[in-house]
Amino acid sequence: AQKVTQAQTEISVVEKEDVTLDCVYETRDTTYYLFWYKQPPSGELVFLIRRNSFDEQNEISGRYSWNFQKSTSSFNFTITASQVVDSAVYFCALYYNYGQNFVFGPGTRLSVLP
Amino acid sequence: DTEVTQTPKHLVMGMTNKKSLKCEQHMGHRAMYWYKQKAKKPPELMFVYSYEKLSINESVPSRFSPECPNSSLLNLHLHALQPEDSALYLCASSQGGPQPQHFGDGTRLSIL
Fold first, then answer.
1. Label partner for A18 (CA 20 to 30 A): which of A4, B14, B17, B46?
2. Do B105 and A106 touch (CB under 8 A)?
3. Is B47 helix (H, G, I), strand (E, B) or coil?
4. Is the peptide bond before B69 cis (omega within 30 degrees of 0)?
5. Residue A86: CB partners within 8 Å, gap ≥ 6?
6. pLDDT for the residue numbered A114
């Protein structure tokens, strides 16, 4: 079965704190892709990153970083020095080849307080 | 501003009405998607069009009828909806397969 779990339903932090959003996935495919999307209150989902199953290099983009570990089937997302504008729901998603379909995790609602 | 445009942004309709949601993209993407999202839930895939042909229908009730008039446009025709169909309807487009999807702002639909 293809499944994405985001165990943290809601997280609240104070501005400038670092925060890590967890994502654990399940798939029997050897070729798959993992994504993170941000959904601010306005509604649209904003693409943040895509990793394929053969590339375990961690990635940093400004204050954002991602840690992909196949050994634990995890693809965690860290925001460094959080800002109020980071407040949103964050979804981790899995694309698996045979289903040619996306599976979204349940999402984590992040609130960054001033 | 998003590159995928959805209209209208809000829609209130009765259960006997017929209405349509519209989605437009000009990024040359070959795949377009409709998702339904209930409050505090992730998006659920409804339909996928690839090269203007319906390729995936996730067992959606027939009161939802998709249409892809051309490669840039995607419609969702609504008829005889139920109160439980109230949700945010999101359109997305991509180059297909595992390529990132680009989402519109969505249409917030309320069924009275």
1. A4
2. no
3. strand
4. no
5. A79, A110, A112
6. 95
